[in-house]
Design a protein that fits this description.
YefM-like fold; 3 helices
């Protein structure tokens, strides 16, 4: 493991980053002889792609009366629409 003082690390920072990223190992940066930080390669996990078929394999249950007509829906649709109160004033063109 390399150890550099902060002045050396500042002057060679780009070189240090390339070296660490290329597999040269971590680098310790020290100030007044005391280790302050360690430069190590980032371990970034590749982003997961979302599953385009999230329900694949999920059991699906269709009730036996799935295609039966819904009486309450037809009753609601057969009722006349409620009348509006007042009139809407329109601007002349």
């Amino acid at each position: 493991m390399k150890t550099l003082n902060i002045a050396e690390a500042r002057g060679r920072f780009s070189e240090l980053v390339e070296d660490v990223y290329g597999g040269g190992g971590p680098v310790v940066v020290s100030r007044y002889g005391h280790p302050m930080v360690m430069i190590v390669p980032a371990q970034v996990d590749p982003p997961e792609k979302p599953d385009p078929f999230p329900l694949r394999g999920v059991p699906l249950e269709i009730p036996p009366d799935f295609d039966e007509p819904m009486d309450s829906l037809w009753d609601a649709l057969s009722e006349p629409a409620p009348k509006r109160r007042g009139s809407v004033r329109r601007r002349p063109r």
